[in-house]
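Task: complex structure prediction.
Instruction: return structure tokens for all chains below.
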Amino acid sequence: MNWYGVRAIYRFEMARWGRTFGQSIVAPVISTSLYFVVFGAAIGSRITEVDGVSYGAFIVPGLIMLMLLTESISNASFGIYFPRYAGAIYELLSAPISSFEATIGYVGAAATKSIIIGLIILVTSNLFVDVTIMHPYWMIAFLFLTAITFSLFGFILGIWADNWEKLGVVPTLIVTPLTFLGGSFYSISMLPEFWQKVTLFNPVVYLISGFRWSFYENADVPVGLSLGITAGFLVACLVVIGWIFRTGYRLRA
Amino acid sequence: MSNGDPVIRIENLCKIYAGDFEALKDVSLDIMEGEIFALLGPNGAGKSTLINIVCGIVNKTSGRVLVNGYDNVEDFRQARTQIGLVPQELLTETFESVSSTTAFSRGLFGKSPDADHIEKVLRSLHLWDKRDNVILTLSGGMKRRVLIAKALAHEPKILFLDEPTAGVDVELRQDMWEIVRELRASGVTVILTTHYIEEAEQMADRIGVINHGEIILVEEKAKLMRELGKKQLFLELDDALEAIPETLLSYHLQFGASHSELIYDYDTRAEHTGITSLLGDLSLAGIRFHDVKTRQSSLEEIFVGLVKRQE
Ligand SMILES: Nc1ncnc2c1ncn2[C@@H]1O[C@H](COP(=O)(O)OP(=O)(O)OP(=O)(O)O)[C@@H](O)[C@H]1O
Ligand SMILES: [Mg+2]
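Output:
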């Protein structure tokens, strides 16, 4: 194993983040606060409780997931897309580092950043509402699993994209809608029966449901299923990455 | 200088880029340990393609590359650890500082951090004063030095320089040559491409010429210059000649720019250059001249001649 290489990439990526640290932290804190003002105060005053949890507290896990997905994807995709765009990728391609090691470095750094942001949002939320975490270990497990899985997904996106538009289109046109429709701000049981069935095709539903279960023990789908689907997505991303590095897809001419 | 086994062995390498363009056609080449090898060729000849395949940046279509016996694809770790690459384009990170990007390169190649070595490299490239500068703020020549520093950060045994002196001022070029000489003295094998024939002439131990994806010549520089380097004697005549007199036909003389200039080709290493007898025969024929000069063909002429001949 080329651990020095993994460490070099990881540190490089964290340093890149460090240069804009203030911005990276302030932005999610502000947007979380805005969500609480809009959803928590305005809508929450009418909905009051969902599945026995106050609406303000109910949306916390969904909010964290929303940020976790967005941050993981954008960090990881940018981390690999930018050197490709600027050409500095030549160095990675000529280095004695395996695809697996490079992935650990890039994805590890992206996941670390989004986990830190997820925790910041959790702390910020506590300023607005009382958040209880019934299963802290499961909460951490879902947090890590989701951050890693979507950082892998972002990494693939950053390799697949061959222009800035493509880099932006997947998060804004696919991931954000899926997250909003995936029960971030409501319980699936609140939907008409037909839409409940449709919603089950949205993979993000399983992530949010599992994560929310670790907080309040209420879930739209069984926890095991949540875990299984997330892990399945993780494996799928790993397979795609393995293929990318083996064939040099979009990396080597 | 060389001791038997080549450090790099390229066997029957072919490269067809997407879109069916054949950039390398069955290239075979051995690079010997400790030598400076200059690869010459016109734009688009395939120099960068060849280097990029050896370094792992471009996939080969067929053939094989061995680096000290290690296949550059199957045993990529052992192969790549030994190689440093300075690419043709100025491709750098932008917001990093000089010292951190150099340290990053060392780590990426699996070497433990070594501040002393990084300092040594940065000093030798006159980058030490700029170590805390962000790359974005450096001039083009400075960026080129940074790329060299990055390539040397992991103490490679083999260094590829893809047009290291393109767009570089005289001073940096001198520095670069000095660095290459020092590297060679420390046992590093250097493969460089260049469009400055003068550079190859000054630096290289061996020269390879590539054109249209084919290696058309590989030769020791000295031998190449000797074999192909003919010398010419120019005679400025007092009076222009109508034609070359019959008594002088055996010398294969040519007229120069005008009929009052005669050119005689000879080989400096031949037993008899024929100059003495030519001069004798000229005076016998009553031809007088007022100026004499000689010229040796440069590598550039040899090179242009070779490439033209292929076309
Ligand atoms: N990624 C690519 N896809 C398709 N064709 C390519 C690619 N890279 C290079 N080529 C083609 O391969 C040929 C050889 O290119 P290469 O860059 O190896 O030439 P070179 O000898 O380095 O030229 P130069 O002196 O201009 O640097 C050129 O005709 C070029 O257009
Ligand atoms: Mg080139």
